[in-house]
Amino acid sequence: MKAPSLVGVFQMLTSTTCFALMSAASKLVGLQATTFEKIFWRQVAVLCFTLVGQFCSGSEESQCAVGRPKKPWLMLLRGLFGHFALSAYLEAIERLPLAQAVFLGKIHPLAAALLAWVFLREPLDASRVLAILASLAGVALISSPVKDGLSIDVVGVGLGLFAGVLSGAAYVCVRALKCSGETSFWVLLAFPLVSIPFCLRDAWLGVLHR
Predict the structure, then answer these.
(1) Nearest one of 78, 56, 81 to 69, comparing CA atoms
(2) 41 and 50 in contact (C-beta within 8 Å)?
(3) Which residues of the chain, if any, have pLDDT below 70?
(4) What integer pLDDT is reported at residue 151 of this predicted model?
(5) Could you please report the per-residue DSSP string of the chain?
(6) pTM listed for this prediction
């Protein structure tokens, strides 16, 4: 198996940090905006950054590499999985302590490993299986519906786990898109292009009421 590059590790750490900051911002905003409002503005930002990065890079090769998507149905799946994963995740943040919601959402590597093994035939050796089982045991402990005699929101826990599984499915779609030769431009745009239409109504009402 190919060893991960330092650049790849740095990108994953940066992504995780940014996602944690987004989670904290969503918790701070709270009920002042609906889940779909938050998703809408996040996706608009992603769309803008992607377009600016693609067309302002100064590279003729990057500007000519857009073309048409090779796997539109797979892009649709990536967008749907991502949209519903993010929706469930932000709802879980409103129902649970931030640390718990973030932890539950982090089962996505486990889901991605299993789904990649099933659908992409990626290797899953014994050490990974043991790590997955140990991680699932940890998730089960921290998501227990009773803690210190206090009831914890079972719906919130379920949403957090659901978000993690769907995020794993979205990552598998990204892997499949890259393996099919899809450009990074379309892989990045798949999420906002599918997600934004779901959020337009809430975003418009939010603007009118402010």
Answers:
(1) 78
(2) no
(3) 1-5, 57-66, 139-140, 142-152, 210
(4) 46
(5) -PPPPHHHHHHHHHHHHHHHHHHHHHHHHGGGS-HHHHHHHHHHHHHHHHHHHHHSS--HHHHHS----S-HHHHHHHHHHHHHHHHHHHHHHHHS-HHHHHHHHTTHHHHHHHHHHHHS-----HHHHHHHHHHHHHHHHHT-SEETTEE--HHHHHHHHHHHHHHHHHHHHHHHHHHTT--HHHHHHHHHHHHHHHHHHHHHHHHHT-
(6) 0.84
pLDDT tens, residue by residue, 93-150: 988 888 788 888 888 888 998 999 999 998 888 887 788 778 777 766 765 555 554 4
Q: Which residue has the tokens 């995740």?
A: 89
